Amino acid sequence: MTAALRLVAVYCKLNLAAAMEYRTSFLAQCLGMVANDALLFFFWWIYFQRFRQVGGWTLLDLVSLYGLVAAAYGLATVVFGNCNRLATVISEGQLDYYLTLPKNPLLHVLVSRSSLAGWGDLAFGLGALAVAAWQGALPIPLAVIFLVTSTAIAVGYTTLIGSLAFFIGNAEAAAFQARDAMINFSLYPSPIFQGWTKVMLLTIVPAGFIAHLPIELMRTFDPWRMGLLLAFTAVLWAMVLIVFRMGLRRYESGNLLTLRG
Amino acid sequence: MDESVRVVGLRKVFQAKQKAPGLRGSLQALVRPTYREIEAVRCVDFAVARGEIVGFIGPNGAGKSTTIKMLTGILHPSDGTAQVLGLVPWQQRQQLAYRMGVVFGQRSQLWYHLPPIDSFELLRAIYELDRATFQARLADLVERFEIGPYITTPVRKLSLGERMRCEFVGCLLHRPEVLFLDEPTVGLDVVIKQRIRALIREMNAEDGTTIFLTSHDAGDVESLCHRVIVINEGSVIFDDRVGALKGRFIHARTIALKLAEPGFALDLPGVRVISAADYAVTLEVDTAIQPIDGVVGRIVAGCAVADITIEDPPMEQIIAAIYGEVGGG
Amino acid sequence: MIVAKYGAVWKVTLLGSLVYRGDVLIRSISMGMILFVFVQLWTTTFTLGAFQTIAGFDLRDLLWYLVITEVAVLSAGSQGISQRIDQDVKSGELARVLVRPYSYVAYQFATSCGETAVRLPLQALLGGLVVWLAVGPPPAGPLAFVGAAVALALSLTLSFLIAAGIGLLAFWCEETLPFYWIYQKLVFTLGGLFLPLELLPSPLADVAGKLPFASIAYAPGRIFVGSSPEVALTQLGSQLVWVGIALAAVTLIYRRGVRKLNVHGG
Fold first, then answer.
1. Which of A33, A43, A185 sits opposite C194 (nearest CB)?
2. φ, ψ for residue A198 (rounded to 5)?
3. CB of B118 within 8 A of CB of B170?
4. Non-local CB neighbours of A189 within 8 Å, separated by 6+ positions
5. Do C33 and A181 touch (CB under 8 A)?
6. pLDDT at position A257, please?
7. Any idea what DSSP says for residue A54?
8. What is the ipTM of this complex?
9. By the CB < 8 Å criterion, does C182 face chain A?
10. Residue among B94, B100, B122 whose CB faces A10 most closely
11. pTM higher than 0.90 for the full model?
C-alpha cells in the first residue's frame, strides 16, 4: 500500500516536472480550462436569474455540483490521466512496458500520464467548492469523502469501459461516448431526471453517484443512501479489478494489429 | 543444473476476426463474427544456462517477439510451460519483474522532456531500491557507460547513442539476473554499436547476467552470442553454436586457387567457375550438391595447385539468409 | 474551374468521412444525448413553473430551437478544423502547401464542408427524432425552413472562419486550444446555443445580440421557430456582416502569418 502511494507520488512529481518544461503551454491550458468551466457555469447563473429553483435545487447547489464534478474529474485526469486513454493503450499494445515492471500494471498505467488541462478543472472545482463552503452549503468532511468517491467512480468507470478493448479490440469510440455521457449527465440538477433515466444514471452511466447523490446527501444526510454510494463505489472497483485481470489473460499486445496489417 | 530459462512445448494461438469487405461484411462481423486461428508459436523447446548470451533470430513474423512476450509475462501462452529464473512468467510476473530487465531498442523508457536522472529516480521507486544501494549502483553504471555529462540533460537533447546508453543504465539499476534485449543496436552508428556490444559483454562477464537477445545485426550475433536459436514459422529450426550456423544456412562456399601452371579443367555438378585467368581461378561450390572435401580432392588430383583458400561466408550473408530465404521458403 | 477544383476536394473528404462511419455515428449519438437532457430540463422547468411560454417561447418552440442551434454548432466540427490548422502551422505543413497551386484556407474550407455534409443530416435526424418524440413536429412553415437553411449555411461559414482564425494564431502562440475553448463556451452562452438570447437578463441580451457568437447559434434557431420576416432579415443581415468581417480578419491573419514564415525561412 505504501509502495503504491509512493509510486503515485513519484509520478505526480515527474508529471509536474515535465509540465514545467513547457510552462507557457501548461499555464495557457490551465487558465483556459478555468475560463471554460466558468463560462459553462454561466448558463446556470442565467437560468436561476429567471427561475430561482428547479425541483428544490438552487444556484448554490449547482455551485457545489460543478465544484464536485470539476474537482473530481480534474483529480482523475491529473493523477490517473491514462484512464481516458486506456482503450488505446490496450489495443495498441502499449501495456507491454508496464507488464515488464514489478508494479500493479493497472495502477501503473493509470498514473503514468497526467493531463495539463486537468489542473484547470481541479482549480475551478476547488474554487467552486470553496465558494459553496463559504456560503455554508457544504459540510467540509462530507465534501472531502465525496471528492474521493466521485474521483474513484469517474476513474473506475472510464477504466472499466476502456478495458473492453481487451475483449472487443476497438473500444475507443465506446469509451469516448461513455465518458461524454458521464460528464454531460453529471452537470445537470437531478430533479429533471425521472423514471428510467434515473435508473440509468445509477447504473450504466453513473452520473447519479458521481454528482447528484453527493449533493443531495450534503443537503440532507441519509445513512442508507450514503451506504448505497459507498457500496456502489466498492462494487464498481471490484468489477474493474476482475475485468482487468480477465483482460490481461487475453491481452494480445497489439499482435493482431500487426497480423492484420 | 543451472538454468535461467527453460521452455517446454510453448505455443501461442491468436484469434483473428475475419471480416468480409464492405459495409455488409462489417455488419456480418458484428452479428456473427468468424475467427481464424493464427498459430504464432507452434511448439517451442529450448533452455538457456545461467550466464549465457543467446541470440534468438528468425524472419519477421516467425514468432520471436511472441516468444519473448511470453517469457517476460506479457502474454499468456495457449499451451506449454516456461520458467525464467525458476518462475512461471505469466503467473509470477511481478516477482520475476524484480529480477529481470527488458530493453526494446525502438521504445524508450526514459521521459522525453526530462533529464535521465529523473527517470532513474522513478525506476528506483518502481523497483523499491533503497537510496544507498541505488546511488552506489548508479555511480558504478554512470562510470561504466560514461554517461556522467548527460544525466542532467533533458532526453530530447541527447543523441541516439547517448540516449541508448542511458536506456541501458535504466534497465540495469536493479541488477537484473536475466536481460531480454530486443534489437539493442538498431539505428545506431558503427562506433556506438561496438561500444554498446563491449558494454554488454562486460556486463555479462562481471555480473554473470544471462542475456537473451534478438537482432537483425550480424555484428551483434557474431561478437556477442555464445549460442544461437533460430525460429521460423513458430518452430525452432536451429539451436547450436554460432560457428555451426554457416554449415546449416549457407550452401555456397568460395574456393580461390593459385595454379603452379596454367591448364585448369573441372566439370562437377554444383561447381561454378566465377573467374578464370591463367594462374588464378575462383570457384563457387554449392555444398548441398557437392561436399567441399570432394571438390578439393578432385582439384588437387587434377592440376598443379600452388595455393588454395576456402573462404568463409561473412556473417552478414548468413543472417541475411536466415532472415530472407528461410522466411521466403 | 476553381469550383471544380475545390469541389473535388469536397468530394474526396465526403467519401473519407463516410469511411469513418463509426466516428460520424458517435457524434450523432452525442447529439441525441444532449437533446435528451435538454428535453428533461425544459419539460421539468415548464411543468414545475406551470409556464405556457417563457420569453415568448413555448416548450415546443424552445426544444426545436435547441435542435437547430446544436446542429449548427456540432456539425461545424470547429475544434477539428482549428486544431488541424494549428498542427499544420506548427509542423511546417502549411509552408509546404504554399508552393502548391491552391489556397490553403480554401482547401481547408472545402474539406470542412465535406465533413459537415456527412454529419449534418445524421445529427439533424437524430436530434430531431428525440425532440419530435417529446413535443411533436417542428413549428416551422416552409418559409422558416428555407430561411433557417440559409442562416445555417452562413452560420457554418462563420464557424469555419473563426475556427480557422484561432488555428492560425499558432503562428504567434504556443497553444491555441484554450482560445478555442473560450470561444466555444461563449457560443454556448452568449451565442444562444443553450438558450435563446431572449432568456438572458436584459442588458446582457442586448450586448449578446450584437456579438458574432449570436450569428452562429441564435440566428438559425430563431429563424427556424418562427419570427417575422423583418427579424429574419435582420438576423441574416448581421450574419452576412460578421462573415465579411471574419473573412477580412482571417485573410489578414493569414497574410501576416505567412509573412512571418518567410522572414524565418519556414
1. A43
2. -60, -45
3. no
4. A54, A55, A57, A61, A62, A65, A212
5. yes
6. 45
7. B
8. 0.90
9. yes
10. B122
11. no
Which of C26, C30, C185 is opposite residue A36, by nearest beta carbon? C185
If chain A, 261 residues long, is cut into consecutive pieces of 10 residues, what is the mean pLDDT of each piece? 87 90 89 94 94 92 97 97 93 90 94 93 97 90 96 97 87 87 95 93 95 95 96 98 95 61 29
Q: Where do we find the cell 574456393?
A: B255
CA angle B216, B221, B224 (to 5 degrees): 135
Question: Does the distance separating the beta carbons of A192 and C41 come in below 8 Å?
Answer: yes
DSSP state of B314: P
End-to-end CA distance of chain C: 30
Note the Cα A97 to chain centre separation in Å.
25
Quick one: pLDDT band at residue C238, thresholds 50, 70, 90?
A: very high
Calpha distance A104→A22 (Å, rounded): 30
Residue B320, pLDDT score: 78
Q: What is the C-alpha separation between B132 and B134, in angstroms, rounded?
A: 5
- Distance between CA A152 and CA A117 in Å, rounded? 19
The SS3 assignment for B247 reads helix
Q: At C1, is the pLDDT very low, low, confident or very high (cuts 50, 70, 90)? A: low
Q: Tell me how close the Cα of C7 comes to any Cα of chain A, in angstroms.
A: 30
Is A73 within 8 Å of chain C by CB?
no
CB contacts of C54 in chain A (<8 Å) are: 50
Distance CA A126, CA C94 (A): 41
Interface test with B, best of A101, A103, A108 (most B CBs within 10 A): A101
Residue of chain C with shortest Cα separation from A195: C40
Tell me, yes or no, if A50 comes closer than 8 A to chain C by beta carbon. Answer: yes
Pick out chain B residues at pLDDT < 50.
327-329
Instruction: Quote the pLDDT of residue C226.
Output: 78
CB B111 within 8 A of CB B117: no
Q: Looking at chain C, which residue has its C-alpha nearest residue A46?
A: C200
Q: Considering only the beta carbons, identify the residue of A43, A51, A197 that sits closest to C189.
A: A43
**How many H helices and E strands in chain A?**
15, 0
Contacts of B258 (CB under 8 A, 6+ apart): B279, B280, B305, B306, B307, B308
Confidence (pLDDT) at B31: 64
pLDDT tens for C20-57 read 555 667 777 889 999 999 999 999 999 998 999 999 89
DSSP state of C36: H
Q: Which residues from chain A sit within 8 angstroms of residue B109, using beta carbons?
A: 97
The CA-based dihedral angle spanning residues C120, C123, C129, C131, taken in that order and rounded to the nearest 10 degrees: -100
Q: Sheet with B3-18: list strands edge to edge.
A: B34-49, B3-18, B79-84
Closest by CA position to B15, among listed B5, B1, B29: B29
d(CA C116, nearest CA chain A) in Å: 19
Q: b/e string for A56-80 if b means 16 or more Cβ within 10 A?
A: ebbbebbbbbbbbbbbbbbbbbbbb
Q: How far is B6 from chain A (nearest CA, A)?
A: 19
pLDDT of residue B254: 83
Any chain C CB within 8 A of the CB of A181?
yes
**Number of residue pairs across A and B with CB atoms under 8 Å?**
74
Best probe of the C interface among A49, A54, A192, A212, by most C CBs < 10 A, is A192
Q: Check B14 against A252: CB less than 8 A apart.
A: yes
pLDDT at C41: 95
Nearest CA in chain C to A170: C22
Q: Does C258 touch chain A (CB under 8 A)?
A: no
Residues forming a β-bridge with B15: B37
